[in-house]
Amino acid sequence: MTIYTINHRQLPQSENLLIRSLVILVLLVTIFKTELPAQEKGILRGFIADSLSGEALPYANVYIRELNRGANTDFRGFFVMASLPYRRVTIVISYVGYKSKQFFINIEPNIVNDLRVQLAALNIQMKTIETTGQKIAKENATDLSLQKIAIRDLENLPKGVELDVFRSLQSMPGVQTGGDVSARFYVRGSPSNENLVLLDNTTIYNPYHALGIFSALDPDMISSMEFYKGGFPSEYAHRLSSVLKVVTKDGNKNSFGGKAGLSLLTAKLLLEGPIPFGSFIISGRKNYSDVVLKKFRNNNSIPADFYDLFAKVNFSNNDFMQDAKFSLSTFMSSDKIINNNPLREDFKWNNNTIAFNYFQISDSPLFYQLDLSYSTFSGERIPNLSGGKGLKNELTDFTMRIDFNYVYDNKDELAGGFKISEVHTTLTLENFRGQSTTTNTRGVSVSAFAKYKFLRFSNFGADFGARTHATRFAGGGSTFFIEPRSSFTLRFIPELALKGSWGIYMQDLVTISDENEVVSIFEPWIITPLYLSPSSAIHYISGLEFTPAENLSINLEGYYKIMHNLAIVNDQKYFDSDPDLINGSGKSYGIELLTKYQLFLFNFTGSYSWMRSFKDVRNVVYSPRYDSRHNINLSLEAEFGDGWAASAVWTYSSGLPFTQIAGYYDRLTIDQLNDNKLLLDAYTPFVLLGNMNTGQLPDYHRLDLSLSKKFQINRLKMYIDFSVLNVYNRNNLFYFRRDTGERVNMLPFLPSVNLKVEL
């Protein structure tokens, strides 16, 4: 088996002339107005992949021993190291769960050393790996509030009903949740609509299944994730709070294979394999039981029906285009809640995307990428005879973006990009008379960003960038913004670093949600109306990173976030001329502590966060419904060999705010009059609410345990997981029904089994 290949290529003088000219132009105009330096030293670049499937290994470690220089592969498994002196060096490649490789190469001036390295997986995941390269690479990394997650990092945690990528985020400090009932996540005191979710650079607008309990993204088709809790750099836009970048697998490049999985809720199937000059992957998931969903309605059935489907093909042929990769993918998800009782509402919502990606590496430390994507969301609330109001929402988003990245001889990096999007939203609302009103809004936005990463010193790194954003609305009106952002890392000693970031962020797409809703089935999206200013936020973040030993790390972060022009539902609208939305303001601040410790077979992770969040609407200040002041997450993982693994997770959150009932009154409508006599038994009691979110629900906590076993019979690999949720059967409150006073709890003591078969 070929473990690695090295190709030496002379740098051309004219290839990619147009792209090089554009890079030079951007550099001249935006940075230093100087020429790009000539390449006088060697370049090392390459891809790290799994030896069996050919799948990229994200965040693998690359270390040059003689130069004491390290790098990590990106989410593509790609890395580049420029300005390497002429000499013979030792390269060490390592990755958790894989056998490390060491080999020698000769670095020569004006030569590109192109590596294709394949690592072999270990039968038993070992904890001792080469970490030097990773440590060197992080010395001056400007990665405050960033978590890089490979799916392998999640596999040993308790699965519960099944492994869910969004719920894994909720164990991080600074990420709040609505409890068992929702995979929606709230980051540092902001609502969920301020989180940007990207699937291979395509925006997913409502990535939730089954009342929001599960995410619509199947973990089996995901390669890695990057999660910014704040302070994200200038290449990301259109959200105020956080960014979740999900990268999918390419599919097995060497042989055909498949996976099948079964849980208490869903059945799923994945197929993958090679095609001429590429690979494919198809993943599908469908629910078949409501045994878990019933737990959220006191064992009453929930008629939820959902599925998701993902497919992707990849193409790469050096005879067609040197060092280029093309991919085409699609994602679909659909949910329906159809009640047999006509007195209840029905719900439907869908996501659909199609995306094309072109990634190109040139024979210099320059690479660039083109993305074309089309994303749609539609949702509908059908009132039937419930007396509720109908609602229908549709959104379409067509986006084209081009990004490039250039690495200088002195290790600095220049990045830039251009993006154009056309977004169309339609919202149809019904009033209590059954009359409907439809609002159509269309806008075209053009944005560009530039970012310079100052990395020439090993103990100091800085990231300076800015983004310009202009939107033109159909029918008149436009907006223009500049969003500057910066971050830095200063390492006093190898074990201690001070980090900070600051930035301005804008958002012109909002959702309509009611603070008093107990469960948000889906939240309709609209473009911010012209009578409102788009929302904005300013992030101030600082942190300390302390690694006193190879097996111990401590991270402390503090943040202060100011928000302006938040779009708030006008709950005091009485006339048609009154606006549906009004502007409010807000702020949030907090402290987060994250500790990781590894000892022999055991991995321990502990986190604590303290947070306050406030909204100011019409000079009334209140805490939003996701303001959980104290949060603790403790997890312990152990691998015992021979495929056995166990884990325990304990979670605590202080009680969420809610709006208390002040009383009831009888509401009489014209339909309740009969021959000028009141039908007293037809009165509908109407809830009178008190001040916004002045009450507090009980604290939430639970313990989950898991035991898993991996085994292999010939070519057939099997994985079985036994999990117990809420081991001590804590009665965590979901909500009280306002009309009957009935208490509805979250998940009780619940054993579950997950089975996965792989061929």
As a whole number of angstroms, the C-alpha radius of gyration is: 27 Å
By DSSP (H or I, 4+ residues per run), the number of helices equals 3
Largest sheet: 22 strands, antiparallel, barrel
Tell me what the CATH architecture of the largest domain is.
Beta Barrel
Task: Summarize model confidence as the mean pLDDT.
Answer: 84
Count of domains: 3
CATH class of the largest domain: Mainly Beta
Q: Using DSSP, what is the number of strands?
A: 50
CATH topology of the largest domain: Maltoporin, Chain A
Question: Could you state the CATH homologous superfamily of the largest domain?
Answer: TonB-dependent receptor, beta-barrel domain
Percent in helix:
under 10%
The secondary structure category is: mainly beta
Gross geometry: globular
Strand content: over 45%
Intertermini distance: 20 Å
Low-confidence stretches: 8-39, 124-130, 669-683
Characterise this structure.
This protein is mostly beta strands. The protein has three domains: 4-137, Immunoglobulin-like; 146-244, Ferric Hydroxamate Uptake Protein, Chain A, domain 1 (Beta Complex), CATH 2.170.130.10; 245-659 and 694-758, Maltoporin, Chain A (Beta Barrel), CATH 2.40.170.20. The chain contains three helices and 50 strands. The strands form eleven sheets. It has a 22-stranded antiparallel barrel. It has a five-stranded mixed sheet with strand order 9-16-17-12-13, with no helix packed on it. A four-stranded mixed sheet has the order 1-8-2-5, with no helix packed on it. The longest helix is centred in the N-terminal third of the chain and has 14 residues, at 17-30. The two termini are 20 Å apart.
